[in-house]
Structures are given as C-alpha cells and as structure tokens.
Amino acid sequence: MMTTQTEIQIHEFSTGIRAERTADGGWVSLGFTGQYMNATIDPIPHAVQRSIANKEFAVAEGATSDEPAIIGRVVSGSEESDWSVIAIVTRGRDEKGRSASFYRYFLYEGDKRVNNLWKILGWIENYQQLHNGEMPVFNPFDTKEIEQPNLCPSFTPPQIDLPPETENLLIDFSTPILIPPDSEYTLQVVSRLANKKVINDGNNQLVSWAYNVEALEQPGRFLIVRAASDRAYELLQKAKLSISQVTTLDVDEQAIKSAIKGLINSSKVKLEYVQAIAEPLGNIEIPESYWKEIFDGQGANNALKQGIYSPQMVRLLTLRAIVIPETLVDYLAWLEKGSKQNENSTISAEFQSQIRNSLSQISATAPNLEVKIIEGIRILLPQLLTQKVSVDIVYQLFTTTNGLWAKFHYQVIQDIEHDLQLMSKFARSSQDLDFKLTEQSWQKIWEELKKYWQIRSCVPQEKYQAFAKLFEQLGYSKLSVIFYHIGLGKVPKNIFFQVRPNGWQCNLYGIGVEREITIPEFLWLVILKIGSIEVRVPFVIILTILSLVLGLAGGKFLLAGSSTTQPTEAVTPNNQGSTASTPSKDKPSETSEEQSIQNPKKQKAVTQFETTKRSIKTFVEKLSKDDDFQRLIREEIKTVFQKSDLSDEIFKNTSGDKTEELKWINAIYSYQKAKFNNDEAKADGIIKDNGDTIQKLKQDIVKKLKEETEK
Predict the structure, then answer these.
(1) pLDDT tens per residue, range 172-219
(2) Which site from 116, 171, 281, 495 is most exposed, i.e. has the minimal number of CB atoms within 10 Å?
(3) d(Cα 396, Cα 405) in Å, to the nearest integer?
(4) What is this structure's pTM?
(5) 522 located within any domain
(6) Quick one: 101 and 192 in the same domain?
(7) Which residues contact 607 (CB under 8 A, 6 or more apart)?
(8) Which residues fall in a compositionally biased region of kind Polar residues (predicted)?
C-alpha cells in the first residue's frame, strides 16, 4: 500500500474468535480460535505477542465495566525501534450468555524509546469524530486486510497542560500511581503524565498506563492507572500494597515458563529454550524468590516433598539447581534418596550434557548460567561439613561426564587454593586480604581454621575429613593433605607421598603437616627417642635406616586412626615363639606369691599410686600423642612387666578400681625386685619421673622393641 510522508500508519489486530450474528445486529462468541483476527500486519511483532502473553494488557476477567477499558504501553521491539500499542477492551458474551473480555489492539512502530502513544490516541479521536463519538471497539465482523493499515494525516503532538496536583503525584516513586474515577483526566492527560513520570524517574522504564479499568492482571506493570469506579479504586489500592517488586520488572514470564516446560518434557534440549532461561538470569533485579515461585509452579516443591522421580522431575530439579544455586543441596539430597539413583543420575547427566553443549552457541548469555553454576558449587561445599550432603554424591556431581558442575568446579578449587595461601597473613590479623570465597559460610570456615596457622599443635576437627576425602577422590592432593591435617591430625602415608615422595613432614600453605607413621616406623622412633640415638638425627636418615631394615614401601602396617586391632598381640609372651621360650634371668615370676608387696610398703604405694600413674602417662605421652601408639607403648610396658592382664582403664579415671591398681603395684614391685637384685630399699611399687625404675623401664622397652623389629 502506498502512503505519503504526511500519513500515519496505525496497524491493528483483534482477539480471534468464531462469531455469530444475533438478531439485533450484534454478535456472540462461539469460542476462541487461538489465533488473532482482523489483522493488518503479519506476523504480529514478536515483542508485542510476548507482552500480551505476559498479561501486560490484560484486565482481570469478569472485572470489565460497560465502558471500554483502554490500556496503553510502549513495548521494546528491535534494536532500532519500539512499538507503541493501545488495547481497547470491551465486554462481550458467548452463545450461553457467559461474559468474557475481547481485545482490539492498535500499534505504531516508532524510534527506540520514543513514546508514540499520542499518535494512536490522535487517530482514535479522529475515528470518534467520524463515528458520532463511538470508540473503535472489538467487532469480529469489521474485517481487515494485511498491509491495509489505518491511515490518518500526520499531526503535531498536542499541547497537554497537566493539572497542578500532578506534581504531587509524581513525587510518589511507588507504582502504579492511582487516579480516582472522579478526576477529569482525559486519555491524553494520563498518557502525558506517564511520559513525564518516566522522565522524572530516569530509570529506563517504558511508558505504560491503564484507563477506566476495574482490575488488572498485572497492576505492578503499570506507571499510571485511572480507576473506573470507587470500588475499583479501593481494589487497586489493596492490590498495590501486595505488589511484589518483580512484577514491575521487564520479564517475559510466559517465555520462561514455556522454556522450562519445553526443557523438562523432552529428551532433546532446544537452544531457544536455554536462551530463554539464560537471558533473564542476567537481570540482577530478579530475586531468587521469583524463580522459586516459577519452578514450584511446575511441580518442583511437590517432587521434593513427595519423592517424585519421573524423568520430567529429574530434569526440572536439575534445571532448578542450575538457576537457583542455593537449591543444589536439596537437589543432591533428593537425588541420593531415590530408589533408582543410577537411572536418575543418567537422566540428569544427559540433560546437563546437552545444556553444556548449547553454551557455546549462546555466547552472549552463557555467562549468566555459568555464574549461577559456580555460585552453586561455592554454596554446596561448606554443606559437606554439616553432613547435609555426602562426599559420594558431591564426587559424582563433579565427575559426571560432560556435566555442568564437573566443567566449572575447578574454578572454585582454584579459589580455595588461593584463599589458603592467604591464611598465614590472615592468622596474623592482616587486613584487606583478597579472599575469593567471601560468602558467610566460607568466612566462618576461614575464621575457624586460622588457629591452625596460629598454634602449632591444635586439636583436629573431624568434620574437615569430608573435605579431605573429597579432594583425595578428585585428585587434588595438596588440598587433601591440608584437610587431613586439620581433620585427622595426620595425613595417610599414600596421600602424603603424592605431595612429597619421601620424608614425614612438609610445609603446605604456610603450615607444617605430618604424615601418618606406620607401626614399624613408630617402634624405631621409640628406640631412637629413649635409646642411645638422639631424636635430633635428621628424620630422612631415620627413614633410610627404616627402609633398609623394614621395607617401608609396603605400607601394610599402616595404623588407621579408627583401628581397634591390638597391635601388640605379636609381642606378648604367649606369641613370642622360640625366642621368648626362655625368660631372662632377671624377669620376675608372673604368679609368684612372694613377689606381692606387703604393708607398710603396700599402703604407701597405694597412697602414691597417682604419682605412679602420672609418671607412666608422662613417659607414654612424651613418646607419642596418638592414642593408638600410646596403647601400643602401654602394651610393651605390660610385656616387660610380664603381666598382660593389667588394665588400661586406670589411666582414664582419677579414681580407678583398687583391685586393678593393686595389680599394677604388685607388677611394679616384682619388676623392681628383679631389676635391683631384691634390694628392698629400691622395690617400693612406686614409679617416679626420672627415677631408677623409669630408666630401667626405658632400657627394657628399647631392648624389647629391637627384638621385635629384628624379627
């Protein structure tokens, strides 16, 4: 169609229905077609269709009055232009007399961010002049043709003087501004007022207003609303109080919902669906509560609570964990509870793989997804310490072939390593350190760990073994070593040797860590410590000796921290073999009655048993801080005393079993008699720090251990 430069083209389209004429010349609806009708433009601009789908022109059903409601807004179109759109909404009926709202849309394409609604309003005013004041309302029989828009002569913008009281209205930054029905504001005044609010607020909003409305589906999406009645004004005021912040944002909610449905209901991921999710993720003004509401609307919350594990729900909760990082923990816990975990994990893995493959094709918005995935990992890892998730399920997540979290978890690993490098300075109260992991959960971890850089010997915190085990399985040896040190107090030999192939100690992240020592190594350490060799001999030399004598590479003697095996079975008298068949001439008889201590020495030994107990404990603790090795040393003492039935319980209680205490006293007394040639002056059943008895005991333990290590 040819037009002159002085003509304005106003396109239009209407709600699609199957209509039937009535006897009075009117019409009734026989049903909606799902397509638009009476259009002068094809296709309908996508941006306009999305705005309609998101109910940005919708009046609340059943809330229309006899007078038409008029909705106007500028819709963001292409990079070069926007669409100014006005919808005239009237009430009609179907063949059964039921009421419904019908829409006739008018649109004009203009420059970017330019409000051209006044041009459509000018055309409507011309229409009314030609039709006795009637509005161009919905009429299914007013047939239109494509490329035959409505034309009117070009005219200049009308000079609209806003009433003085509008200045007070514009001070209100909340939306929408409500105008009561008794005001004399015309359509042009309302449109001009909305335009001025956009200019005053300066927040890049587009003009939007509603005129003569009873209720709106999305009142928060409008700047100015003029109520049709007093009742409507009251309802709109109440609705305004409950408007969430997100409803005022430019969000294509229907596109998001359609994309979610498309992604979860098909085994094939479509690129446009991923794009529809990734794009709004870049809008930092959209809160996670908005996304949560959308996913719950698709059944996410029900799947979690009711344990629904259909393929659709697996994909839905996987997608939810991507989009809402804080839900990753719930997703993994839910996945682990399922009876078909392997099958569900496979569905999730395939879903992740397809999304991952699509990221390279949406390079502009892919970072929005990547940021969320990394954020989820940062939230997830501290939950290992609270046992909300297991090491196994997190390991599976990070090693899923072509998985999303598998792809990006290394970035968080690098952040952990970076922050551990800062711990020495942090422990010295240095300020302004550039920590990468600054979430509250990580700040708590760094505060909790800094004492390990401040104090050389610190009690292990068992919960950090979860970190150690995960990093061990993932192959991050240095991280595994440091967290075994923190969580266990010692590092398993095989893990330690991945960082340092020899030795027993190394420095990581500014802190000294030690590996776990095998039983043969420990026995030699005891010999070195209480025997003739000083412990100051460099440990590398000791290990060289050990490797020659014992073959340390085997590692089969490694004593696990949780082991309950009594390590001294092989060295008790009944298990010594031929080398122990002939007792030494100075060993006391195990059952000899004459070796029992008698009063008054007995009474004195009982009175001073706390001294004896303390001396033995000090002797043992100087050799090792490890509970298992301390038990081993006590077993060696019993072997030297030839009394394997002596109880260890007396070392755990301040007031022990007197019968058991007396057994220890008699064993010590018999040992002293044998060692000091029946010298009653030295045989008193008491052991003192640095006394003759403790020195003899050291010598005999060294001798016994040498015998054992030479076997």
Answers:
(1) 777 899 999 988 899 999 999 999 988 888 777 899 999 999 999 989
(2) 171
(3) 10
(4) 0.65
(5) no
(6) yes
(7) none
(8) 565-583, 594-604
